[in-house]
Amino acid sequence: MTPASRRVFLRRGAVLLGVGGLALVAGSEVLSERPAAPVGVRLDTAAGGTPGTLAAVLAEASSTAGRRLLGSPWETWAGAVTTGWSGLYVSWLLRHLGGTPTTDVAAVRNALAARGRTGTAPAVGAVVFYSPGSTAPPTRAGLVTSVTRGVAQTVEGDHPVTVPLSERFVRRLSRPGHGTVSYGYPEYM
User: Fold this and answer.
1) Chain centroid to CA 155
2) How many beta carbons lie within 10 A of that of residue 76, not counting itself?
3) Closest CA to 139 of 151, 128, 152
4) Pick from 112, 109, 124: which is nearest to 27 by CA?
């Protein structure tokens, strides 16, 4: 697949996801492995969809793909950050659930774990956590935007790590993974 056709494919997939693709995913076995969600959780100002819905968070994540840290809404929300902004990006996406700005990925995972909302199955809307080993705390995070044959596709901050911090941006990944992967299931799921 050429880079241009891949971009068209990803854009079309994002549109389908935003206008009904979730209905196709909702019945999958992978999603049924996550904990049941509380009813009535609201996200006050998330972009796209009805506030409080998974669609709203996915639309917000999609609209920020390709944005750099400098001048971003999450930098404005949290102030100047020089390291660890994958955690900041995820905490910004979850901000309407009562979260505060943090670059501490482990703190985000621990907050979900304390409510019994973590696991090993990828699910649309889940937070993906990357740890350098099975017992090490996570050091990076992202948001799962789709799952294809058990493989999560994500939107993540702090990429690419091979360029200076001032040039890093939010990127879509079609096959994330390095180290140990786990998932957190926010209340909107």
Assistant:
1) 6
2) 9
3) 128
4) 124
| CA 40/CA 21 separation, integer angstroms | 22
Contacts of 100 (CB under 8 A, 6+ apart): 91
**Confidence check: pLDDT of 174 > 90:** no
Q: Across the chain, what does the average pLDDT equal?
A: 74
Across 6-44, b (16+ Cβ under 10 Å) vs e yields eeeebeebbeebbeebbeebeeeebbeebeeeeeeeebe
d(CA 159, CA 85): 10
Mean pLDDT of 23-51: 35
Q: In sequence order, what DSSP letters do the residues of 47-76 get, joined into one string?
A: SSSSTTSHHHHHHHHHHHTT-BSTT-HHHH
Helix 54-64 with 85-93: angle, nearest 10 deg: 140
Query: How many CB atoms within 10 Å of residue 171?
Result: 16
Query: In the beta sheet, which residues pair with residue 143?
Result: 127, 155
User: What's the length of the chain?
Assistant: 189
Kindly tell me if the per-residue pLDDT of 13 is higher than 70: no
Residues 176, 157: Cα–Cα separation, whole Å: 12
